[in-house]
Structures are given as C-alpha cells and as structure tokens.
Amino acid sequence: MPTPARRRKLLALTVLFLAACASSNPYQGMDEQQMFAYARQKFEDHDWDRTTQTLDRFFASYGGSTLSEDARMLQADAYFGKGDYLTARSEYQRFLDRFPGSARAPVAALGMCRALVALSPIPQRDQEYTQEAIVACRNVVADYAGTDQAQEAGKMVDDLRGKLAEKEYLNADFYLRRKLYDSAIKYFEFVVDQYPETAYAPMALKGIYDANKSIGYDDLAEDARKKLLANYPDSPEAASLHTDADGGS
Questions:
Q1: Dihedrals φ, ψ of 179, to 5°?
Q2: Which end of the chain has fewer CB atoms at under 10 Å, N or C?
Q3: Whether the Cβ atoms of residue 120 and residue 133 lie closer than 8 Å to each other
Q4: How far apart are the C-alpha atoms of 53 and 78, rounded to whole Å?
Q5: Within 10 Å of residue 23's Cβ, how many Cβ atoms?
Q6: pTM score, two decimals?
Q7: How far is Cα 219 from Cα 209, in angstroms, rounded to an integer?
C-alpha cells in the first residue's frame, strides 16, 4: 500500500497530467456556440494564432453550423490581423465563393483588395502584387457600386496607380541624370500616357521638356511646355515654367 508521501506524489502527478491534457485540448466539451465565442474572444485579444487554430477545429467539427458564415469572415480577418496577407486573401475569396449572396460580400471583397494592397511593395520592386491589387480593388468598385467599400477601394486604386507611375518616373529620372535622354523621354512619355491623373504626369512633362532642351530639340521642348501649362496649370512644374511661357509667347 502506498505511503502517504507516495500518495501525495501520485496525486500531484495526476493533477499535472490532467492540466496538461486540458491545455493541449482547450476545446474539450465545447459546443459550436462556445467554440465560436472562444475564437471571437481570442480575436479580440489579438491572439491571431489561437483564433485561427480554434476556427480550424470549428470547421472540422461543425462545418454545417449556422455560424459558419461568421466564422469564415473571422478566419479571414484573423489572418489579415497577423499579417499573413496571402492566406487572408484566400480566406476572403473562400468566403465569397461560399456565401456570394451575403450582405458582407462587399466587406470580403474589400478584404481581398486590402490584403493585396498590403503586399504591394515599394516602387523600386517588382509590382506584380500592385497590379493584382488594382484588379481586385476595381472589382469592388464595379461589383458593389455605391457602397462604402467601393469608395474605399476606388481610393486605393488611385494610390496604387500613383505607385506605378512613380516607378516609371524613377526609371526616367535615372536615365535623365545619366544624360541618356532618349531613354528618359520614353519613360516620361509612358507616365504621361498611362497615368495622366497622377501627380507624376506633370513631373514627367517637365522631364520631357528638360531632356529635349538638353539635346537641343527646342520644338519638342516647347510642345511639352505647352502641354504642361494647358493640362496641369496649377502644378508646381507648370509654375516653374511660367516665366518661360511668358517669354516664349
């Protein structure tokens, strides 16, 4: 028969074992309502890993639950919160595939847009994700016109196009500073043609003006000056040429 000391030791080991089991399976005995509530609480605590783990268990145990729509959106938001934007994009798409008629479809579509925007790199890097983000955000604008989500997505498209314009402008400026004027002009013209609504368009026209002046193409420089003054009269670049405009008229 175990001694009192031995019994106490066995009891302590039993308690530790049960505690370990409970910690390794915190979902023991939870129904779908309790498990979803637990995931929601972890989300509010910004415990993204526990949120996604709990929801994985939820889907495995209660895939047909009436809470599945809420759970799918929460899963996507949790991945976005933890900065796993690729998975977040996939989860928002999964939500749209499974609940296309949901009132929260615009929210999920904007989530895809925002996830890709978050993946968009600095202008000097490859802009594949920026291009994807523009497509996704434009889809929100087209599919959910009149909603707050469409308005926000439209602003993101403007910002993303500004980033693409900046990339091309930086390429042009690189060549201009090295006096490779023909290459610089090609890039500047691309900015003007493709991104006329951005702040880089008047900057590019000024670049075209400067490059043509440098190589003695005064007639082409004059064309760029007139276009700049006519299309972007309030831009800083136009202001810098007003003196030339007065002198050349």
A1: 60, 30
A2: N
A3: yes
A4: 10
A5: 8
A6: 0.81
A7: 10
- Distance CA(64)–CA(128), nearest Å, equals 37
pLDDT tens by residue, 29-38: 889 999 999 9
CA pseudo-torsion sign 169, 175, 179, 181: negative
Chain centroid, CA 239 distance in Å: 35
Phi and psi angles of residue 119, each rounded to the nearest 5 degrees, phi first? -85, -15
First to last CA, the chain: 113
Tell me which H or E stretch contains 78: helix 68-81
> In this structure, what token pair is assigned to residue 157?
């498209």
Single-letter amino acid, residue 81: G
Count of CB atoms within 10 A of residue 13's CB? 10
Task: Give Cβ neighbours of residue 189 (< 8 Å, ≥ 6 apart).
Answer: 204, 208
Tokens of 42: 């972890």
Structure token pair of residue 58? 């939820």
Lowest mean pLDDT among 24-28, 194-198, 204-208: 24-28
Under 8 Å CB-to-CB from 244, ≥6 apart: which residues?
225
For the stretch 112-161, pLDDT in tens is 999 999 999 999 899 999 999 999 999 999 999 999 999 999 999 999 99
State the DSSP H helix or E strand holding residue 238, giving kind and residue range, or none if neither.
Answer: helix 236-248
- Tell me the C-alpha distance between 183 and 43, whole Å: 52
CB neighbours of 248 closer than 8 A, spacing ≥ 6?
A: 222, 225
